[in-house]
């Protein structure tokens, strides 16, 4: 814990920044089993928003582990720290009036609640939109684009979410998408409609 540090406020408030840039920031937090479609939907959503000339930036599990979180492994403490840092980084992006789109399994309710609380405790509160990217285990296991379920079943990956480690489904997510019933374009449409309804982006 650092001591002798003092927060240095900016000369521009969050509201003023939003007005100057003509955009509000928010974090769209995608959670769900591996192969449920988080990265696929995040990529399509980012593209859609950028084409509408809105600032959007994707923070994706594997990519973040190549850089910011390359010092972290997959033990319990590292997983918690992984999500805590993503929560902080997504807050910084959203404070810069960007729509941050995160795509992490983030299997534990407590970790997601921590990320949410960072946003909601901020003054002014920053919208945190939890999106449950949901498909049954047999469906995601049959997709298995990275071959991870196969390895997990063979015992080659320990503590794999859905197989040998729990996934705690969101209790009250802002958005729930069944990717075995809705295609990628449909998923993007659902999220965009929510953003429009909340006046986070122009309709
Ligand atoms: N409706 C859908 N939405 C999203 N992806 C779908 C859908 N239907 C099929 N897919 C396919 O499912 C796979 C989802 O893989 P993706 O990498 O997006 O999952 P993920 O949730 O990011 O997994 P991980 O946690 O391992 O990164 C892709 O191959 C995608 O083409
Ligand atoms: Mg992914």
Automatic annotation (TrEMBL):
This protein's pathway: Sulfur metabolism; hydrogen sulfide biosynthesis; sulfite from sulfate: step 2/3
Segments crossing the lipid bilayer: none
Catalytic reactions of this protein: adenosine 5'-phosphosulfate + ATP = 3'-phosphoadenylyl sulfate + ADP + H(+)
GO terms for MF: adenylylsulfate kinase activity; ATP binding
Enzyme class: transferase
Keywords, sorted A to Z: Amino-acid biosynthesis, ATP-binding, Cysteine biosynthesis, Kinase, Nucleotide-binding, Transferase
Family: Belongs to the APS kinase family.
Listed GO biological process terms: cysteine biosynthetic process; sulfate assimilation
Domain of life: Eukaryota
Protein name: Adenylyl-sulfate kinase
Organism (species): Kwoniella dendrophila CBS 6074
Keyword ATP-binding: yes
Record's function text: Catalyzes the synthesis of activated sulfate.
Enzyme nomenclature, EC number: 2.7.1.25
Keyword Metal-binding listed: no
Domain APS kinase, residue spans: 24-178
């Amino acid at each position: 814990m650092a001591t002798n540090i003092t927060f240095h406020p900016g000369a521009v408030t969050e509201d003023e920044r939003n007005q100057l840039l003509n955009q509000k920031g928010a974090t769209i937090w995608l959670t769900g089993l591996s192969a449920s479609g988080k990265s696929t939907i995040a990529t399509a959503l980012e593209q859609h928003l950028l084409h509408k000339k809105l600032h959007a930036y994707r923070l994706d599990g594997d990519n973040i582990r190549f850089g910011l979180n390359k010092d972290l492994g997959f033990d319990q403490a590292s997983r918690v720290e992984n999500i805590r840092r993503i929560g902080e980084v997504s807050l910084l992006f959203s404070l810069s009036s960007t729509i941050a789109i995160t795509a992490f399994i983030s299997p534990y309710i407590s970790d997601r609640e921590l990320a949410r609380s960072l946003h909601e405790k901020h003054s002014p509160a920053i919208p945190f939109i939890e999106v449950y990217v949901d498909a049954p285990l047999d469906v995601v296991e049959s997709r298995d684009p990275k071959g991870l379920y196969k390895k997990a079943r063979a015992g080659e990956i320990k503590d794999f979410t859905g197989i040998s480690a729990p996934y705690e489904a969101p209790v009250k997510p802002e958005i729930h998408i069944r990717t075995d019933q809705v295609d990628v374009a449909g998923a993007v449409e659902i999220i965009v409609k929510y953003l429009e309804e909340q006046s986070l982006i122009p309709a």
